[in-house]
Structure formats: structure tokens, C-alpha cells
Specification:
The complex is a heterodimer of chains A (about 230) and B (about 280). Chain A is an all-alpha fold and about 230 residues long. Chain A has one domain. In chain A, about 75% of the residues lie in helices and about 0% in strands. Chain A contains 8 helices and no strands. In chain A, helix 2 runs antiparallel to helix 3 and helix 3 packs antiparallel against helix 7. Chain A is globular. Chain B has one domain. The longest helix of chain B is centred in the middle third of the chain and has 37 residues. Chain B is elongated, with a radius of gyration of 21 Å. Classes of the chains: A mainly alpha (about 230), B mainly alpha (about 280).
Amino acid sequence: MRGSLLLIADQGLGLADRILRGLPMTMDGSPGRSVAWIVILLVTCGGTYGAVMGCFPLTWESIRPLQMLYSGLKVPMLLLLTFALSVPSFYVANMLLGVGGDFFLVIRAVLATQAALTIALVALAPLTMFLYISGVSYEQALLVNSAMFGTASLSVQPLLRRQYRFLIDKNRWHVWLMHAWLVIYAFVGIQMGWVLRPFIGSPSTPTQFFRDEAWGNAYLVVWELIVGFV
Amino acid sequence: MLAWWKPLDKLLRGDLGVEVKQSSQEIAFPVGHVIVLTIVLAFIFGASIGSFTAVSAKDTSQGWQQLLASTVKAPLLFYLTLLVTFPSLYVFNALMGSNLDIRAAFRLLVAAIAVIVAILASLGPIIAFFAFSTPSGLGGYRFILILVVFTTALSGCLGLQYLLRMLNRHANAEQPTSVPIDNRPSQEGSPEIVMAESTENRTIHSAISWRSNSSVWSPAQAIFRVWVLVFAIVGAQMSWVLRPFIGSPDREFTWFRERTGNFFQAVAQVILDVFAGS
């Protein structure tokens, strides 16, 4: 039992290392398997960081297992649902530009980048917990997590480029498509993040999966803030 | 299992199924099949727009009526536009001495519409997601409206660019003086790919290219470009005539609205309203 767990942990760490370095994932040579592993890694690491997000304010009395579970579910949901909504239009764009044949590689590249994002988040998790322990307020905790997501997103950009280099060498349209992907993904992802609130959950309110007033449009809120400010 | 999708897949890749018949070339993809697929995809797009009203209307039955209306009207938008503009295209093309016969011209346009609708349907999940999560007030209505107009304009531009590209390819293929495809330097640059292609006797170009194949337009090609503009304007106005696609939250459901105004005026008004904050 203990041996097999160690084996899984070892394999997982090996895979994570290969993803971070942008190496080909030759677990057993099967490309389909490697995508499955990427998704498993994404769900595990995303879930881990989500649970860490949800453990605010990290004192013995205030631990909320339900909030940790919800947050742990929400981070992989955020990434995978955004991915699922963005894929159809990205597929058609790839087809139209004549690079539809590479689509499997493209999907693996963007999924691997998202998995790397979650690995980066897990690496930042101790820092988040440390800041929680230092006694940040709820608003500051929101800011801390935004910063962590921002840092992780920026840090995986070179990886996406590295993953795409081989594709770009084949066809220059991939440069354009890679940027198009980032635009679509960010556009949908921002709204998805808004809809899936709360990720941390204010300790003063009861724990719930969705807030009653949660839905709404992130861009409209920002627009109204700007209009109100002007 | 995915065989039903195959013809559209080929069209998106820019393969019109050109067949050589007695020194002339014919575009020979299964038109009926593609039209049916296009209608289904247009339904998906229409439903994703109409879903905003379905979830936000105060009166639920009216919301569902709007959803149904948007779904049914979406394919009409594209094929009515084709009906209005196709005769003039054909006549002017023939007058200008184009080598496109009426069947080829029709098939080319069906292909372009299929591409436009495929792009729109692929954006359907994103539009539906925003429709479900956006609040039903006037601000939300305007957001969805601008999102839909933007995505439709984008798809229209891509689809019409596809049309011109296919037209060029077709025209060049019929000119015996044009450079044989296999001798051209490959843009992909990989020797393996070039060899694989030359054995198949065709290159895999993207459906939309960096640059146009021909630098000089024949009169027929020039007319075609003018016509593309006409198609775009008629299409935009057709969406106005067939409105509402997205039911305004403060209005009763109707299948059609009164016949006043035009598309461009209305879009300009919405954008002005957004900036005025009214």
C-alpha cells in the first residue's frame, strides 16, 4: 500500500517536472494517456490550491472543511469549464487556418500549460498559508490570491510559447492562434471566475457553494465602476 | 460516427472537393448535406442567443417563445440573405465574363455560409454562458447585444475572406498559365510535408491565407469583391428586419418588430447609450 502510494507520488512528481520543463510526456508513449495524466494532475493540484484558498483565516477554531472542499472543487472547475467553453471556437479557428491536423498537439499544449499553472499555484500555496497565518483581512486575502493567480498565469507564459515553438515552426499561423487562445481564454475565464465566486468565502457569512447574489457579469460590474468613477 | 461532420470538416480545411471534368473543374461537395448541417448549426447559434431572453424574461413563457423564435430565425437570416443577393451576383459575374457557372457560384456561397455559421455555432457555448450569467437588466441586454454583434461581424469577415480565397483558388486553378502548385516553395518549409503533398498532387493551404494568390484582379473578381460588401450589408440589415433575436427585457414578445430604422443606426445608438451611461 505504502509502496504503491510512493510510486504514484514519484510518477506524479516526474510528470509535473516534465510538464514544467516542457519535455515530451513519455509516460508510456501513448499520447491519449498523457492527456489523461495532465488532466489528473490539473485536478489534483488545482484542488489542492483551492483547499488552501478556502482555509482562510487558518486558525484552529475557524477551520471550515466544507469551504475547503468547495474551493478545492472550484479551482479545477474554473480552469476546465473555461477550457471546455473556449475549445469549440478554437477548433474552428484552427481548422480554418489549415492547421486542424495539429489540433491534438495544440490541445495537449494548452492543457499542459494549465496544469503547469496549477503546479505553480501549489508551489505558491505555502506562501498563501503563511500570509493567512500572519493575519491578513478578508479583503487582503482576496488580493493575495489574485496576486498568486496573476503570478502563476504570467509564469507559465514562457511554457506555452515553448510548447508552441514546434507548432510555430511547422506553420506560422500558430503564433496568431496562440494569442487568439489567450484572448478567448481570458475573456471567458474572467467571467467564469466571477460566476464561481466565492473562492475564499468570508468567514462571517455561512458557507455556501454559490452566493445568492453571485451571478452577474464581471465586465458590466467593471464598466459600471468606471462610469461611476467618471 | 463522425461521418456526418466530415463534409463540413473538409470545407473548413478549404477542401471544396474540386473534381476535374473534361478540362473544366467542378466544385463537388455534398451540398444538401452541408445545408442541413448549416441549418442545425444555425439553430445552435440562434438558441444560444435566445437563451438570454429565456433566462431573463419576467414572463417565462414569453422567454421560451423568444428562444424558439431566435432558434428558427437564425438559419433564415443566412439563407434569406443569400436569396436576396445571389441573383445579382450571378448576373453581374456572367456579364463580366466569369468562368463560374451558376452551380459553382451557388456552391461556393453555400460553403462560405457554412463556414460563417460554423464559426458562430462554435462561439455558441461562450455566448450561452454569458447569457446565463449576465443579469437581465438593460445593461446586461446591451452587453449581450454588443457581444453578439461583434462575434457575428467577426465570423462574417472570416467567412467572406474564406469566400474570396476559395474564389481565387478556383480562378487560378483554371488558368493554364499559373505556376504548377507543386513547384511553388512551400510556406510550411518542411521537406517531408512537401514530399507528402506532391505525391497527393495538391498542397494543403490554409483556408485563409497570409496573402492573396493573385495581385491583379480580373473584372469578375472585382465585381465579386463589391458583391461581398453588398452581402455583408444585406446580411446586417436582414438581422435587423428579422429582429428581435435577443428580446429586450422591457418589451413584449413579438415574432417581428415594426419595420423602421436600420441596423447601423441601431448599433451606433446602443454604443452611444453605453458611453452615455443612460
